[in-house]
Design brief:
This protein is of the alpha+beta class and 216 residues long. It is built from four helices and ten strands; from the N terminus they run H-H-H-E-E-E-E-E-E-H-E-E-E-E. The relative contact order is 0.14.
Length: 216
């Protein structure tokens, strides 16, 4: 009986057969279509192109779907314009009080006080004139301590301690009934000479956020 030599399996082929196997593998790869031409990739790609064409033909309708199909980011939401800051002469509300700043006065280093006295500033006085209406349901006085002035750099000024010595002092301590108004109250500040004003922040009470009125 003739002995036959066993042919080694491919995975156990001798190193001499390695070049032949590499050439065979290269030949098989050359005959296979590239990945982007295979059927499982052709169908989704064709659907994407078709969707883009259809949406484009309809004048850009459903742009949100077009963005998803093409991978573009979603358009940013339109920002809603914020109403402008109240200014001199306009109404500004905080809590149960409606304020109207009617003007700003700069009397300088001194100004008349009540009972014939003269008030003297460390720097110079700034007087913010306001009308106040109680739009709430209970009576309340106008608190002079919680009104705040800011310059154009953001520096904060509290009311001057001599505010209760002004001729308008009674307007801050009297009770303002619902629906009633107090006109011409003078909020007094002591600032450095030549200070450029930014805005006044008016409060119903010291606990409220306040409303800002531009003075520039």
């Amino acid at each position: 009986m003739n002995d036959q030599k066993a042919v080694p399996a491919p995975e156990f082929a001798s190193p001499k057969d390695a070049p032949a196997q590499a050439m065979a593998q290269k030949a098989r790869s050359a005959t296979s279509p590239p990945w982007y031409k295979k059927k499982r990739f052709l169908l989704p790609s064709a659907l994407t192109v078709l969707l883009v064409i259809i949406l484009g033909a309809n004048g850009g309708l459903r742009s949100d779907l077009l963005n998803i199909a093409t991978g573009d980011p979603q358009p940013a939401a339109t920002k809603v314009a914020v109403p402008g800051q109240p200014v001199i002469g306009s109404k500004a509300v905080d809590g149960k009080f409606e304020f109207v700043v009617t003007g700003v006065e700069r009397p300088g280093k001194t100004m008349p006080g009540k009972n014939g006295t003269t008030l003297t500033a460390k720097g110079e006085f700034v007087v913010v004139k306001i009308n106040v209406t109680n739009i709430g349901t209970i009576g309340q006085s106008l608190d002079c301590r919680c009104q705040v002035l800011y310059n154009d750099k953001g520096t904060r000024y509290s009311p001057s301690p001599v505010i209760l010595a002004t001729k308008d002092a009674l307007k801050f301590v009297r009770n303002i009934e619902p629906g009633e108004s107090v006109k011409g109250a003078s909020v007094l500040f002591d600032v450095a000479p030549g200070t450029k004003l930014g805005f006044v922040q008016l409060h119903d009470t010291p606990e409220t956020v306040g409303v800002e009125v531009a003075l520039g």
